[in-house]
Design brief:
With about 325 residues, this protein is an alpha/beta fold. The chain is built from 11 helices and 14 strands.
Length: about 325
């Protein structure tokens, strides 16, 4: 089984307990581990895979809490870095109109330094780039691009998820798009939302968006469509694979669970690059990943709600 390296941010989400209020009036918050790459690493590990998280936290109680959460899930955090900057925090609530109120305090995640010892063990493994804060400057953005070059040179399967966050890119969307295109040119597998596919490609149709992304060099594309399922495009073959009907309580982390389940299956396939070129086999991979994403919505929080193998009926 190959290792899955997940590179990017990890942070604390402070979620307002009272729904229907804005942050100005919220008084009680729940502390939750967050950050898409960290969630993906936890998802891989819960399913029995070998996940390695690469990111930075502060030398503070919040940073210790986050690393402990990943360690409890069996994620290798030997390459995570603790720095002198405070751990990155996000505060989130829904106001009375249903709009998201969001304040982001960026700290330690931007300080991730390039580690040459890490790339020495990249050879032939799976490397996932989850981009939410990685194009926002700092040492992380420099290290991120360096790791991409090294992963490509080491013959890794490269996975990319744009993780577009409107709150982080109210300005600078063109730069975000340019960076995504740069990373897609090196990716073998890409997972996008419908919003991201349209934003990055400028196409309103799934077929047109996937054609654009395939032309960049991506072999296998998945576009998540919420309750409608997932659109899968491999070469010139495509289909929509239906979602799983569940009573959803919280959609947080569903996309990360989907990605983690896909990468877990690729990591244990023996030859993941061949697998992502096989439309029929990838249809089965996506079907199981849809189940993982749906399962995550049935409980609150991202990491606590992630499925184990038994939850997916895997033998």
């Amino acid at each position: 089984m190959k290792k899955v390296f997940c590179i990017g941010e990890i942070l604390i989400d402070f979620v307002a307990e009272s729904q229907g209020t804005n942050l100005e009036n919220a008084t009680v918050f729940s502390k939750k581990p967050g950050g898409a790459p960290a969630n993906v690493a936890a998802a891989v590990s819960r399913l029995g895979g070998k996940a390695v998280f690469v990111g930075a936290v502060g030398r503070d109680p919040f940073g210790s809490f986050l690393l402990h959460c990943l360690q409890e899930e069996g994620v290798d955090v030997a390459h995570a870095q603790q720095v002198e900057h405070f751990t990155t925090l996000a505060f989130v609530s829904l106001d009375h109109t249903g709009e998201r109120d969001f304040v982001f305090n960026r700290g330690a995640d931007r300080e991730l330094k390039y580690d040459p010892q890490l790339v020495s063990v990249f050879g032939g493994q799976v490397v996932h780039f989850g981009a939410a804060t990685c194009f926002l400057g700092g040492k992380l953005e420099t290290a991120y691009r360096q790791y991409l070059r090294e992963a490509r040179a080491a013959g890794c399967l490269i996975s990319f998820d744009p993780n577009y966050r409107t709150d982080l890119w109210k300005e600078g969307r063109d730069y975000f798009i340019d960076q995504c295109i740069y990373y897609l040119k090196s990716a073998h597998f890409a997972k996008l939302s419908l919003e991201e596919a349209r934003l990055i490609t400028g196409s309103e149709t799934l077929e047109g968006a996937c054609r654009f992304i395939h032309q960049l060099g991506v072999f296998c594309i998945t576009v998540t469509l919420g309750e409608q399922g997932t659109y899968l495009s491999v070469g010139e073959q495509n289909t929509t694979i239906g979602s799983v009907a569940v009573e959803a309580k919280d959609t947080t982390g569903a996309g990360d669970a989907f990605v983690g389940c896909v990468l877990w299956q690729l990591s244990r396939s023996g030859d993941p690059v061949s697998l992502i070129r096989d439309f029929d086999r990838m249809s089965n991979v996506v079907m199981l990943a849809n189940r993982a994403g749906a399962h995550t919505t049935t409980a609150f929080g991202a990491i606590p709600a992630l499925p184990y193998e038994a939850d997916l009926g895997v033998n």
